[in-house]
Design a protein that fits this description.
heterodimer; A: alpha/beta; GMP Synthetase, Chain A, domain 3; four-stranded mixed sheet; 53% helix; 21% strand; globular; B: mainly alpha; 77% helix; 0% strand
Chain lengths: 135, 151
């Protein structure tokens, strides 16, 4: 009985790891539903992504993504192609895309906090600075 | 008895090496060390302003430091006996090589003994490490130029 339960839970765990759609979380300071939906569609349509986050603030857009384990060899390429796609979708926005795990964590913290104004700008600037850090 | 028959006799008498078992223990030990390294890397990323790219430097230093402390306490010797290459190949093997040589030559004095022999084994790690890094970087540069992979 115990073995059966173990096997079934293992199968469930394995299958839940293979969920098709990526987990996407977004936040818009001006609550523009259309822009959020456009970004979410672009992110969920990408089959190489497992997790993504995006924050809009005053013509500034910060996006972070996590690629599937086997696509990690082409992480930079995927990031660049997504950056190109997002830039074409939002030509009037200053777009920043990163595939770093730390950036995803920080961006998710910003989305959870739902801060606005100067605080949000400060957080986003800090995230972009962090991504540029070389040492 | 010529060299060939001698070798055959030796092969018959000598106990067989448990190659599969050794591979398994090495895989397990190396995997656990790398798993600990991944946890250390996550700790640096979560609690400090390190990104995935920059967290590797402090992680390597921390793992070497852990290995040095464990070597001094005599624990790494036991891990090495169990895991073999699994404990020597990761960067922790470097810390072990430095400290074990230092302990071994302590009786010869701190300058000529510890100082002179500390990098006796680790020196070759540095030389071949730098050389292999150069070769790998060269191959990667060529592959990037050809457009097979990206940086």
């Amino acid at each position: 009985m115990k073995r059966k339960l173990c096997a079934i839970s293992c199968i469930f765990l394995l299958l839940s790891g293979c969920s098709e759609k990526p987990k996407v979380s977004t936040f818009h300071a001006e609550e523009d539903r259309q822009e959020i939906e456009t970004l979410e569609k672009a992110l969920t349509d990408n089959k190489k992504i497992v997790e993504a986050a995006g924050v809009f603030f005053d013509h500034q857009l910060v996006v972070s993504l996590q690629v599937k384990p086997l696509s990690k060899f082409k992480k930079e390429k995927i990031t660049k192609s997504l950056e190109k796609e997002v830039k074409s979708l939002f030509p009037d926005h200053d777009v920043f895309v990163s595939s770093d795990l730390k950036i995803t964590w920080e961006l998710n913290k910003v989305i959870e906090k739902q801060s606005e104004g100067k605080e949000l700008k400060k957080d986003l600037d800090e995230i972009q600075e962090l991504a540029k850090e070389e040492t | 008895m010529d060299a060939k028959t001698y070798q055959q006799t030796v092969d018959q008498i000598a106990p067989k090496r448990p190659v599969l078992k050794n591979c398994m223990t090495a895989f397990l030990t190396g995997g656990i060390i790398c798993g600990i390294g991944q946890i250390v890397s996550f700790v640096y990323m979560y609690f400090f302003p390190f990104t995935e790219r920059t967290a590797s430097n402090p992680t390597v230093s921390t793992m070497v430091f852990f290995a040095m402390v464990l070597t001094g306490l005599g624990v790494y010797k036991k891990i090495g006996q169990f895991g073999g290459a699994g404990s020597a190949v990761p960067v922790t093997g470097f810390g072990n090589a430095v400290i074990s040589a230092a302990i071994e030559h302590k009786t010869e004095g701190f300058i000529l003994g510890v100082g002179g022999n500390m990098f006796k084994l680790a020196g070759s790690v540095i030389v071949y490490g730098v050389f292999s890094a150069f070769v790998v970087a060269l191959i990667k540069t060529i592959l990037v130029q050809m457009g097979v992979i990206s940086w």
